[in-house]
Structure formats: C-alpha cells, structure tokens
Design a protein that fits this description.
By secondary structure, this protein is mainly β. It contains 1 helix and 43 strands.
C-alpha cells in the first residue's frame, strides 16, 4: 500500500483532458511556491433596504454618505433608514451609472444616468435635477444614456446611444454640458456601448473594438485618443469596470464572443478567462447581461461576473489568477442561484452590495459564514489522479486535511460529503457523509474507505456549513 498526497488545488499542467475540476464558494490562497489552501468566500447579512418597489439599480458612497437607486427612486440611506432624494424618469431593472466629484469646499455632485436620461444630485443642498437635452445636437445640454457614464480629469463623460459621439461636462459641474465638449470615436465602426475611466484615461467600447483616450490641456473637449485599432469589443456593457490600473470586460470580436479580458492602457488586451469558463459562458442564454462587480479583502482582489438570465456568478481572483463559482443556496429546496449583486462599495470600512431583485443592501464580510442567516454550500471537485492512468489501481481510502473543530460548543457539527468517480468524472458514486469533528476537536480527520478500482480517480467534496471551512490536501491510500 502506498499513500499519495493530492493538493487541494493542483498544477494545471498536470490536468488531463476534460478535467472535471470545479470550485464553489471557496477560493485559492497561495501559502508557498507550490502549496495552496481553499478559503471560504465571505458571508452576508442585511444592512438595510431602500424604500418603494423595484430592484436595486446602483450604489455609491460620497463624502461619508450612502446613496442608491431602487426602481425609479434615488435614495440616501441614513442610519439604516432610506430617504427618497429624487425620482427618475424610468422604472426598469437596468443598472444605472453613478459617478461623482467632491471638491474641498464640499459642493460635490452625483451624476446618475439611466437608459436615456441624466440627473444630478447636489450634495450641499440635497437638490435633485433632471438634465435637459439640447435643442439641437450642437447646442449645450445633456445627450447621454445607455446607463453609462464615467469621471475623468475633473469631467463627467457620456455618449449618445446609437452612435459614436462622446460628450463631457464642464469641469466639476455636471449641470453644464457644453455643445463644444463633443468628440467622435473614429476608429470604431459601430455605436458605443460602454465607457469607463481610471482617472487619467478613459475607455470607449463598441461591439467591434475600443479606444483609449487621455486628458490633454485643451479648451473644449480636453481628451485625445492614444490607442485604437484593437478589434476586441464588448459583449456585456455592464461588465466593464476598472480595478486599480486595469480595465476588465467580457468581450467579443467579429469571429466570436465570451472571453474575459483586461487591459492597462497600452499593449494588447490580456485574456484572463479559461477554456472551462469560456465553455460555460457560451452555454448561457444571454451572456450579454453580465454585471461586473469587484471588492478587495484579505489581500485578494475579486472580479465577479453576475449573469442575470443565466443565474450564475463566475469570479476571478487577481492574487492567484484562479476562477471559482459563487452561489446562494435556497435553504428549503437547496436550489442555487448566482449572487444578486448589481454594485459594491466600501462604506465606513464595510463592503456593501445592493441586490437587483429587492433593493436590499447586504454587508459582505469574511467573518460571516452564512448568507443572511442561511448556511453556505461549498464544493470542490479535484483534478483526476493520476493524470493519465495506464494501469488499474485500487484506492482503499481518501482523507481530507483541513481546519476542523471550529464549531462552537452547543452548535451542530457540520458533515462533509464525498463522492468519487472511477471514470474520470463522467459518472459519480452515491454521496457519503462524514462528520467534520466535534466542537474544538482540532485533531479530528475526515476519512472515507473502500473507494474501489479506477484508471483515473476524481473526488468531489461538499459541505453545507455556518462555520469557517479551510481545506489544504487530500491523502489517498492506494494498492
């Protein structure tokens, strides 16, 4: 008999064809050059809920104040209670764009853009204004829409849906939109779909490509294109966002779609999605409805794609370049659904997210191990062992190594499920459940015996728990 230590996250170069690897509500954390552990994704609790009806459409924090849009109403959350500050002309499920500026004198503004209209909220006076369109395209006035806006070099930028025209506001005054502050994306052949900025550069996307513009000290439209010609466009307009110095988006080209890219102002876009996740994106009915969200915690920066129609959430971790799934479990039926987040912010040191289904604001925290009180389902399917099995091997047992004993005294100890495949993940055995160990029993190990013979063995672990879970290795005994 011999033992084989299998890392909980293996080297991808050793993975066989059609590897069944899968990770749900766990993310990899590198602890040395070759060793990873799986850590639990954060839980959530209810922070508050915006008033009136409809789904959440946006969330922003400015100057120590928290604002959001639910349905047709722009609202402020004060001490956990919502206060309506203005009404939008649309009442849809579409995410709105919200950008702001906050000068030292405190006379800041928030620009809200929905499908066809713009609105400005003035922080000093709590005044909400519906922006008026120009009498003609060349005159002063707001001409944006498409639920898109960004803030770059002191100005808000929007585009006219259906064409390639970009317009900017006056410096730090979203109420004024000069007719001369207009430019056209000339290297793109199709209308603009999305716009985003890192403060100095802004990106303008269409179906067939993108342009990068940089601030220039000019009088009217003070930006000039510095990069164009990349024929990688955008599939999901709401997937576009900046994380630190990189733009991230779900892309498309003239020859295909469904690849996730990032770009940092110069050079070629970098593909960050994997073939496995690109196949899963291709299986979705409407991948163009993906909403991008991000947050940073414990040294990890996460980029999440929430697919509304597909009811899935795929997440990329910048620290490890690994992907995993996120999902919320319905406690009665056990059905899974993607995260309902439409936007995330950091407010008073806490990560908050607003849901597009109910307008609830959730507090997201790594020290929470339930989703609003409901246990979280976590799964990991390991890579096939051995990579290419040329001989039949009998596997006597499998032992899961991880952190156990975290269950507080008096609470129910969670069980871990294991099932296995002897045909490289094509079919699976019945579920076999074992206790994770007692309260504060840190020496306990979880072990399953009598796995059977296989040319290639795959293992599937699942736990539904309200406590901290960390897995690092599986030891398989074979003959």
């Amino acid at each position: 008999m011999k033992s084989l230590d299998v890392p909980i996250i293996g080297d991808s170069k050793d993975a066989p064809q059609d590897d069944p690897e899968y990770t749900l509500n766990l993310y990899g954390e590198q602890v040395s050059d070759e060793v990873y552990t799986l850590k639990p994704t954060p839980g959530s609790e209810l922070y508050g809920q915006f008033a009136v009806g409809g789904g959440g459409r946006g969330l922003v924090t400015v100057g120590g104040r928290l604002f959001g849009v639910r349905g047709a109403y722009f609202q402020e959350m004060i001490d956990g209670e919502p206060l309506v500050r203005g009404s939008l002309l649309t009442n849809s499920a579409a995410k709105v764009a919200m950008v702001y500026h906050l000068p030292p004198n405190g006379n800041g503004q928030i620009l809200i853009v929905d499908e066809t209209n713009g609105y400005v909220f003035e922080l000093a006076t709590n005044t909400f204004t519906v922006l008026a369109p120009p009498a003609s395209p060349e005159d002063d006035g707001f001409v944006g829409g498409g639920c898109q806006a960004t803030y770059c070099a002191g100005r808000a930028l929007v585009f006219i849906p259906g064409n390639r025209v970009i317009r900017c506001s006056e410096v730090n005054d979203f109420l004024i939109w000069p007719g001369l502050g207009t430019a056209t994306a000339e290297s793109l052949a199709t209308p603009l779909k999305a716009i985003a900025s890192n403060g100095n550069l802004f990106y303008a996307f269409s179906d067939d490509g993108f342009e990068v513009w940089q601030f220039q000290d000019a009088d009217q439209f003070p930006f000039a294109p510095i990069l164009s010609g990349d024929k990688i466009g955008i599939l999901a307009p709401q997937s576009l966002l900046f994380i630190e110095r990189f733009a991230y988006w779900l892309g498309r080209t003239d020859t295909g779609e469904g690849v996730v890219y990032r770009h940092s102002g110069g050079g070629q876009p970098e593909r960050i999605s994997t073939h496995a996740y690109e196949r899963r994106i291709a299986d979705l009915s409407t991948p163009s409805d993906a909403i991008g969200c991000t947050y940073n915690s414990l040294g990890h920066t996460f980029y999440l794609l929430n697919f509304r129609a597909g009811n899935k959430t795929f997440c990329w971790d910048k620290a490890t370049s690994l992907w995993h799934d996120r999902a919320v479990r319905e406690p009665v039926s056990g059905n899974l659904s993607g995260l309902p987040w439409v936007a995330t912010v950091v407010f008073e040191g806490e990560i908050l997210a607003i849901g597009y289904q109910s307008g609830q604001v959730l507090h997201i925290d790594d020290e929470l191990f339930t989703d609003t009180g409901n246990p979280i389902l976590r799964e990991r399917i390991l890579t096939v062992i051995p990579k290419e099995g040329d001989w039949l091997t009998y596997y006597q047992s499998a032992e899961l190594f991880g952190t156990v004993g975290n269950t507080p005294v008096g609470q129910q100890v969670p069980n871990i499920m294991m099932k296995y495949s002897t045909d490289r993940g094509m079919t699976w055995s019945l579920e076999r459940w074992q206790s994770t160990g007692g309260n504060h029993s840190y020496g306990t190990r979880t072990r399953w015996v009598g796995l059977g013979a296989a040319f290639g063995l795959a293992l599937w672990f699942r736990v539904v728990s309200s406590h901290f879970i960390s897995w690092r290795m599986v030891r398989v005994y074979a003959e």
